[in-house]
């Protein structure tokens, strides 16, 4: 059974994680010292029962959070197949926000992922042209990413857009990434890989800028520093830093 930080609603967190198809709990992946899911669940789990205490995320166009949930499914506009699951979902009066959290993943060897033909359906709306063009460029080989999982982010954007449209809300995809200096083993993270990831995040942001789903890259280190400046979150931040160490 995972051990969570103090003052977290453990039952709610476990219920959320068990719904998702990632099998993080049963597989034991959640207990890994390098788990990204554990970081996101412990950080944002504190706000599940008090969403109004979550500060607006840096550079994210949002108001006061009305709901926070973990393992956020953002379904496509069809019933079958797989649908995106993001680490965190936030809802305000005006905006739906999906958060995809990364910790060590960008610094591991890239996985081969792609798009099936179902993503070519004309269902994403007129204001998602930059995402769909980037999708085509990835499929054709005209564009490529190594440290950044651009395919996953595009799929997430499609899912967020679908759910937000049904609620008549604005839509934001937050890419929340860490830049740890060391692996859990103590080995140094390849700084060239960190630099490549930064360049690819910036390139992705430029490629989709202006589309309906606003893309916001955010470093875990900057988010934690924002929270640390709020007295009510002081104990929570201290516990996060003790458990998860330097996040960049």
How does this structure look, described?
It is a single chain. This protein has helices at residues 10-19, 24-27, 36-45, 129-140, 150-166, 191-208, 220-228, 234-244, and strands at 67-73, 85-91, 95-102, 170-177, 213-219. It is built from eight helices and five strands; from the N terminus they run H-H-H-E-E-E-H-H-E-H-E-H-H. The mean pLDDT is 93. Helix 4 packs antiparallel against helix 5 (150-166). The chain starts with 9 loop residues before the first helix and ends with a helix.
Q: Which of globular, elongated, flat, extended, rod-shaped describes the shape?
A: globular
Average pLDDT, all residues: 93
Total number of β-strand segments? 5
Q: Structural class of the helix and strand makeup?
A: alpha/beta
- The order of strands across the largest sheet is 1-2-3-4-5
Low-confidence spans: pLDDT under 50, at least 5 residues? none
Q: What count of domains describes the coordinates?
A: 1
Q: How many DSSP H or I helices?
A: 8
Query: Largest sheet at a glance?
Result: 5 strands, mixed
Task: Tell me the strand percentage band.
Answer: 5-15%
Please report the distance between the alpha carbons of the first and last residues.
Answer: 28 Å
Helical amount = 25-40%
SSE order, as H and E?
HHHEEEHHEHEHH
User: How many whole angstroms does the radius of gyration measure?
Assistant: 18 Å
């Amino acid at each position: 059974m995972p051990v969570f930080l103090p003052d977290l609603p453990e039952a709610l967190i476990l219920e959320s994680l068990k719904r998702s198809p990632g099998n993080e709990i049963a597989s034991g992946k959640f207990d890994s010292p390098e788990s990204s899911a554990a970081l996101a669940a412990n950080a944002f789990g504190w706000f599940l029962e008090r969403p109004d205490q979550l500060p607006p995320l840096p550079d994210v166009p949002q108001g006061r959070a009305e709901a926070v949930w973990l393992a956020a499914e953002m379904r496509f506009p069809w019933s079958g197949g797989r649908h995106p699951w993001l680490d965190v979902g936030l809802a305000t009066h005006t905006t739906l926000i999906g958060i995809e959290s990364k910790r060590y993943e960008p610094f591991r060897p890239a996985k081969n992922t792609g798009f099936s033909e179902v993503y070519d359906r004309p269902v994403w709306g007129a204001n998602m042209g930059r995402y769909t063009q980037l999708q085509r460029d990835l499929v054709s080989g005209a564009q490529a990413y190594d440290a950044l999982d651009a395919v996953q982010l595009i799929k997430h954007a499609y899912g967020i857009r679908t759910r937000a449209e049904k609620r008549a809300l604005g839509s934001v995809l937050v890419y929340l990434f860490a830049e740890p200096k060391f692996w859990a083993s103590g080995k140094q993270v390849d700084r060239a890989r960190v630099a490549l990831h930064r360049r690819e995040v910036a390139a992705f942001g430029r490629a989709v800028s202006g589309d309906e789903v606003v893309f916001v890259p955010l470093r875990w280190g900057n988010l934690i520093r924002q929270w640390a400046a709020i007295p009510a979150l002081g104990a929570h931040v201290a516990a996060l830093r003790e458990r998860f160490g330097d996040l960049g």
